[in-house]
Amino acid sequence: MQKRTKMMVEEKIWNLLLKLSVPAMIGMLVNALYNVVDTIFVGRGVGVKGIAAIAIAFPIQMIIMAIALSVGIGSASIISRKWGAKDIDGAESTLGNALSLALILSIVIGLPGIVFAPQILYLFGASGNIIGYSVVYLRIILAGVFFTLFTMVTNNIIRAEGNANMAMITMLTSAVLNIILDPIFIFALHMGVAGAAIATVIAKFFTTIVQFYYFRSKYSIIRFHIKKLKLKLKLINEIFAIGSSAFVRQVVGSITIIILNKLLSIYGGDMGIAVYGVIQRLLMLAYMPMFGIAQGLQPIVGFNYGAGLFNRVKEGIRDAIIAASLISTLSFVFIYLFPTFFISLFSKNVELISMGKVALRIITAMFPLIGFQIVASSMYQSLGKAVPALFLALLRQAILFIPAIYVLAAIFKLNGIWLTFPVTDALAAIITIIMLSYSLKRLQYMKGWKT
To answer: What total of structural domains would you count in the chain?
Structure first.
């Protein structure tokens, strides 16, 4: 514990950011890679209908991720600040409440979702051609929803106590196991989309075991105690208040995909849905390193803010913006130069590749502006500033995107759907710059500034 505390206070910020971010980046990249590989296996084993089927189910998975992230990020922010203030008992109570919430929420989500899966999927845009595949896939995913919630919540908490390597190991465990199991269930056992879902649930189950053991071991600063599972209303309110921006971002993202799929079914049919399903997986690979930077920043900001070391907070934010912007720019360059290569990884269907390469270039036209927006949102979460974090979460995906997509689709049809992405990215970037500049100036003059 003392070693990690000293690291947070004394180590150079850039070195500390790399130490905490690189494991997060590796873990999240591999995690995103398994989603890509999952889609590739389904595309090769089932075809375009299989890709469209899991694309339709993905918004439900995003809602599950939203709930997990709201609890995980909210808890992580509280834990890192309590750790900085040397309140370990408070941090352990936060862990216990987070795990209790994961169990309760898995029951609330899982049971109704399994029963009403067909109705939900029809509502989300499934056609008669793909509904059978989607229902099978979704019901299996929901049967193992507790493991998904547990692993996502605890991964954030492990990172919050400065153990980025362990957080990486748990993510790698899940992703690598999933990649190994996918071809066994999909091809060897001829289970198609059901095999992909089963592989995911098994991988999450084994990761849950690893993470639970960690919180009972000497390696964790924040230990699991059964008596800490008792829910505290004040603590729950704080967890959800801070995590609300992550929740809203994911839920709004899910709603956005539902709207996208419905418009794509009108202007592009099942092929249009499949194209965006492929692009979505590719963009996840591009986003994950930036989210890794943001997650590495979180304990730096939370701990040093709790300890009153505001100059280190500001320095960490600056370095994270530089790193994330570099990643977003490099991602844009590779995507723009080699769109056909990336799309053809998923399917050899000529129509999908032709439509996909055009869409991919349009969608990522303003991708260099994404990096600092991700860091800004994470900064507000880490500082416990729920309102600005919530606003930024809503800005790009709801306030700007939803009106724009209806207007542009009406004017430019299918290409209008793709154009919505760069238009809203540019507008959101302008607003984020204004907010970020103001917040950093205010942080510099906070009472209690320490060097």
So the answer is: 1
Please give the pLDDT value at position 451: 34
Least confident of 29-38, 133-142, 183-192: 29-38
Residues 96/153, Cβ–Cβ less than 8 Å: no
Which of these, 339, 342, 381, lies nearest to 250 by C-alpha position? Answer: 381
Taking the mean position of all CA atoms in its chain, how far away is CA 422? 20
Q: Would you give the end-to-end CA distance of the chain in angstroms?
A: 23
Backbone angles phi, psi at 29, to 5 degrees: -65, -45
Q: What is the mean pLDDT of residues 242-262?
A: 77
Look at residue 90 and tell me if it is in a domain: yes
Closest CA to 56 of 115, 111, 116, 132: 132
Residue 342 corresponds to which amino acid? F
How far CA 422 is from CA of 108, 251, 277, in Å, comes to 37, 21, 18
Tokens of 107: 């029951």
Residue 450 lies in a domain: no
Residue 451 lies in a domain: no
Residue 299 lies in a domain: yes
The backbone torsions φ and ψ at residue 383, rounded to the nearest 5 degrees and listed phi first, read -80, -5
DSSP secondary structure string for all residues of 138-181 = HHHHHHTHHHHHHHHHHHHHHHHTT-HHHHHHHHHHHHHHHHHH
Domain that holds residue 430: 2-444
Kindly tell me the sign of the dihedral angle through the C-alpha atoms of 309, 315, 316, 318.
positive
Rounded Cα distance between 423 and 405, Å, is 10
Residue 287 pLDDT class (50, 70, 90 cuts): confident
How many other C-beta atoms can be found within 10 angstroms of the C-beta atom of residue 333? 12
pLDDT, residue 5, reads 65
pLDDT above 70: residue 3: no
Does pLDDT of 302 surpass 50?
yes
Which conformational region is residue 194 in: left (phi greater than 0), alpha (psi within -120 to 50 degrees), or beta? alpha
Contacts of 102 (CB under 8 A, 6+ apart): 68, 71, 146, 149, 150, 153
Q: Which residues contact 446 (CB under 8 A, 6 or more apart)?
A: 310
